[in-house]
Amino acid sequence: MPLMIEGGRIPPRWAEKKNLRAEAADNCDAPVDCLRVALVNNVPDPALEDTEMQFFELLDTASGEVPVSVKLYSLPELPRGERGREHLGNFYSGFDELKTSQFDGVIITGTGPKRLDLRNKPYWGSLVDLLEWAEHNTASTVLSCLSAHAACSTATAFRGARCATSSSVCLRR
C-alpha cells in the first residue's frame, strides 16, 4: 500500500522517488482504514529532507499491505534558516495541532547537540510536553537521537524505559 501524507502535501523528493505513488491521506475514509503516524522531525535544516526520506522509506517498506498515513511536525523553538522555515511551512502542520490529536504511533527525531545538559536547550519544555503527550495519545513511540536521551533524562517520561548508550528507543504501551 502506498504511504500517504496527510493533507496531500507530499514532499517533492518523496513523490519523485515513488514516481507519484504516494497519495494524499484524505483517501482514508475512517481512522480504522489507516495506521496514523506522526513524524516529529527535529533535525537541523541540512538533514530535514533526508530524515523525512529515511523514515518514509522505513514506514513504506515495513507497512506491507497496511496503509500508513503520516503527518509531519517539528518543535517550534528549533532555530531554522529560511529554507527550513519554507519547507516546514509547505509540508508540516502546527505543533499546537499535534497536542490535540491522537495517533497510532509517533516518531520523534532529535537535533544536533549544542549544550551538554539537554534541560538547558530552548526546546526542552516542548520536548518534555511532547513525550508526555506521546505517552497518553499513542500506542507506540519511536525515539531517535537526542529525543531518546531526553526521554531518559526526564523522570516523568516513559517510566521503565531501558536507557543505555544507544541513540534510539522504541516504546509500546
Query: For the largest beta sheet, what order do the strands appear in spatially?
Result: 2-1-4-3-5-6-7
End-to-end gap: 26 Å
The total count of strands amounts to 7
Silhouette:
globular
* Relative strand content: 15-25%
Quaternary organization:
single chain
Shape-level CATH architecture: 3-Layer(aba) Sandwich
The helix fraction, in percent, is 25-40%
**What is the average of the pLDDT values?**
78
Descriptive notes:
The chain has a single domain, classed as 3-Layer(aba) Sandwich (Rossmann fold). Strands 2-1-4-3-5-6-7 form a seven-stranded mixed beta sheet. The chain is globular. Helices cover 34% and strands 18% of the residues. The protein is an alpha/beta fold. It has six helices and seven strands, in the order βαββαβααβαβαβ. About 3% of the residues have low confidence. Helix 5 links the parallel strand 5 and strand 6.
Tag the structure with descriptive keywords:
alpha/beta; 173 residues; 34% helix; seven-stranded mixed sheet; 6 helices; Rossmann fold
Short précis:
This protein is of the alpha/beta class. It has a single domain (3-172), classed as Rossmann fold (3-Layer(aba) Sandwich).
